[in-house]
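Design a sequence for this backbone.
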């Protein structure tokens, strides 16, 4: 009778020890992944805000029209009169200059890759260098309406 009680107590003790170990592992992984998750959220916000800011950048050589207006003109009639070229070429220069000035002060191991899809002038053009998919990256796509029923897609990837 006494041995049956001891076996039950040992069984309960084993269960308590296993639950304690499980709780320790859960706490370890929960606390260690917070910094990574926090950085991912920061990167996601930074990429999203960069695209939002790019839409609002103005072009001094084109009567200070916003980047989004340059894209609309590039997709449409190209009626804007810019001192340094067409609205498409001014948008191209604006993208390159803005993204380079934004990302160059960042850490050396960061790189970006930006494309605009569905706009003939920008097909095949990219800015920055393509991300290596073996490193952590954050990508964000943002549609931009350039004409009634017609959207182009701006895509920005940041990796490193």
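Sequence:
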């Amino acid at each position: 009778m006494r041995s049956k009680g001891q076996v039950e107590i040992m069984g309960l003790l084993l269960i308590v020890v296993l639950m304690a170990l499980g709780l320790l592992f859960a706490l370890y992984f929960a606390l260690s992944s917070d910094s990574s998750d926090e950085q991912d959220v920061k990167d996601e916000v930074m990429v999203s805000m960069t695209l939002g800011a790019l839409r609002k950048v103005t072009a001094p050589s084109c009567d200070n029209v916003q980047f989004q207006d340059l894209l609309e003109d590039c997709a449409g009639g190209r009626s804007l009169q810019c001192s340094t070229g067409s609205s498409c070429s001014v948008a191209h220069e604006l993208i390159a200059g803005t993204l380079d000035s934004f990302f160059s002060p960042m850490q050396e191991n960061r790189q970006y890759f930006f494309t605009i899809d569905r706009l003939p002038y920008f097909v095949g053009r990219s800015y920055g260098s393509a991300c290596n998919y073996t490193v952590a990256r954050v990508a964000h796509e943002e549609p931009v309406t350039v004409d009634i029923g017609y959207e182009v897609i701006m895509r920005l990837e940041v990796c490193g």
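Residues 2-32 form the longest helix (31 residues).
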